[in-house]
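for ur thesis appendix - Secreted protein. copy paste whatever u need, i formatted it the way the template wanted (i think)
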Amino acid sequence: MSIRFTTKARRGVVALAVAAGLALGVAGCGGGGDDDKKPGSSASTSKDNGSDPSAQEGQADEPLAELRGSGGLLLQITSAQRDAGGFVTVNGNLKNDGAKSVVVPASLSGNETEIVRNGRSLGGATLVDSKGKKRYYVLRDTDGRPLTTTGFSTIKAGESLAVFMQFPAPPADASEVTVQLPTFASGTIQISG
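the 3d part is after this line
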């Protein structure tokens, strides 16, 4: 026998073994129970007529702040949560309140070369702690990409885009900070957690 034939035969045996293993795995994961039984209620199911859960955990119904920008853009900040790792994550919605599509200004990315080369983002955002007299910039990963929503350029009229920004956390006693974003009015928010 040739080496070529032996190699093809081995590949066939391996493929057959993998296919058999997958078939057994799928059969083992099947429901295989009584189809007549009704599923029980889960622990997370609400039995009362309370409010429905929000789209993002920890978000309020009313925005913490609304920042108006150029061209009819509106940034509604819905939550600012302090994380255990020493970060603050700010969530919100970037909405086009105007009558026509808006190209999101490139200046929202800021002017730092490392952030700008990674495309459009909210990398120019800052948190200002007036009490501690410090400014916090959007965090970056090890490749220099901002830890914020990226990759958007145009928002159609009436359209909304869920966004986030992550910052180093100010001291625990600094719960009130100001959010600043280029071309937008600034707004004061409360950090929870």
